[in-house]
Design the sequence.
């Protein structure tokens, strides 16, 4: 296990289409986080899982966004009816402890372009 | 919403010089972390400093934390061209929130 894996690396979609991204965390990490990053900005928190439970969701996560982590391993982030404003880098991170004790390991991200 | 604010937004120096980046934040924190991001890639964890610590070192990195001023600084000594990247501070209360970052360019 070499780290956090995100697929696809790049996704171009037409406005109105649905997209799904996948994140495979480090296998022994029970915590998984999704962030969104736009050009020139820092990552913005979207949501957080501990095992399969989704414990926190940002208000940035509108009803068009849904995230799952069905078996407490990999996670998916789906965006329905994509809009041009959804164009961003979507980053996944995992950790074995909370952020109060430990840093996060980030994947390389999925870059979404909505045309 | 983002917690921290880095200063400066961009920094350009010559190889061998030291680079100092600052971070200010608004609320009480459990710890503060610094991350590095190369263009178009994910973030790499550099260092974590707890709220009861004032200074921490890791290789060429030195981080300070002043909780009374709600500020932190990251010093990179003897910079190298390979240090060119964006650097983010992240404050931790219950989860982690990032600032907008400092874009560091180290010229060979």
Sequence:
């Amino acid at each position: 296990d070499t780290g956090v894996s995100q697929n696809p690396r790049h996704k171009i979609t037409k406005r109105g289409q649905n997209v799904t991204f996948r994140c495979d965390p480090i296998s022994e990490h029970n915590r998984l986080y999704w962030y969104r990053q736009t050009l020139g900005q820092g990552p913005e928190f979207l949501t957080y899982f501990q095992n399969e439970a989704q414990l926190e969701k940002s208000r940035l996560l509108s009803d068009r966004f849904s995230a799952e982590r069905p078996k407490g391993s990999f996670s998916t982030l789906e965006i329905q009816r994509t809009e041009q404003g959804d164009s961003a880098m979507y980053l996944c991170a995992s950790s074995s402890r909370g952020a109060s004790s430990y840093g996060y390991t980030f994947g390389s991200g999925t870059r979404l372009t909505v045309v | 919403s983002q917690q921290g604010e880095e200063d400066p937004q961009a920094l350009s120096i010559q190889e061998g010089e030291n680079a100092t980046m600052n971070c200010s934040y608004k609320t009480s924190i459990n710890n503060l972390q610094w991350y590095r991001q190369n263009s178009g890639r994910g973030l790499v964890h550099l260092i974590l400093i707890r709220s009861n610590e004032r200074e921490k070192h890791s290789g060429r990195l030195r981080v300070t934390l002043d909780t009374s001023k709600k500020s932190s600084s990251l010093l990179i000594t003897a910079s190298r061209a390979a240090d060119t990247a964006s650097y983010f501070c992240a404050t931790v209360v219950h989860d982690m929130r990032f600032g907008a970052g400092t874009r560091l360019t180290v010229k060979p």
